[in-house]
Design goal:
Length: about 210
């Protein structure tokens, strides 16, 4: 298997929870899992360390990096600035077919909420954000946001599965899409920032709840 493929597979396995934060990433088992040489695994670990998904420590080797709630808050603050720009650019550039696609994603999100399919909702959430990045045509902002989302993926997944959270965020996503479909760049950026501010507020509540009283 090519090194790039090993990196992609390991990244995906971390993002989908096959490897949890704190899990050790040992070269021999990974080489067996991905049917490749240890050199390819080492290269993948170096790449994912640079992306912030893996950390390497002397005498302990590589592990899936733990992201603190405080770091997740800062990541989301950075995303708010970048994704506001992305939403505005998507509103400017989206074609008629792409606008129809966005409406369809929101319809699927509504169905997932109505049927309590939280896992499906989480996947549709990620799809919507990814498609907005692609429609924006802003390559640099899109690359930065993709990296930031990956670094905080574990917190995002927990957030999406919180009771009542999909229903709360559904209206926020619908507002983003409504503005993009209307071609209203200012409203799209504002709706995206409002959505991510609500994520920040939930993370603040998590952090405060974990503090000793």
């Amino acid at each position: 298997m090519a090194t790039g493929s090993v990196t992609d597979e390991l990244r995906q396995d971390i993002l989908t929870g096959r490897f949890e934060p704190g899990d050790r990433l040992l070269e021999v088992p990974l080489a067996e899992l991905y049917r490749c040489g240890r050199a390819a695994v080492r290269s993948a670990l170096v790449e994912l360390t640079s992306e912030g998904l893996v950390e390497r420590e002397a005498n302990r080797g590589a592990t899936v990096r733990r992201i603190s709630i405080e770091e997740a808050i800062q990541i989301t603050e950075a995303r708010a600035a970048l994704e506001g720009l992305i939403a505005a650019q998507a509103a400017h550039h989206a074609t008629s077919d792409e606008r129809d696609e966005l409406r369809g994603i929101v319809d699927d999100m509504r169905a997932a909420v109505a049927e309590d399919r939280d896992g499906d909702y989480s996947e549709l959430n990620a799809l919507l954000h990814r498609r907005l990045r692609e429609m924006s045509g802003h390559t640099i902002a899109s690359q930065l946001v993709a990296n930031l989302r990956n670094r905080a993926a574990h917190h995002q997944y927990r957030l999406a599965l919180m009771p009542g959270r999909p229903g709360e965020s559904l209206g926020q996503h619908a507002s983003i899409v409504e503005a993009v479909v209307a071609g209203d760049e200012h409203a799209a950026a504002a709706a995206m920032r409002d959505h991510l501010q609500s994520v920040i507020e939930v993370l603040h509540r998590w952090r405060d709840a974990r503090r000793p009283t």
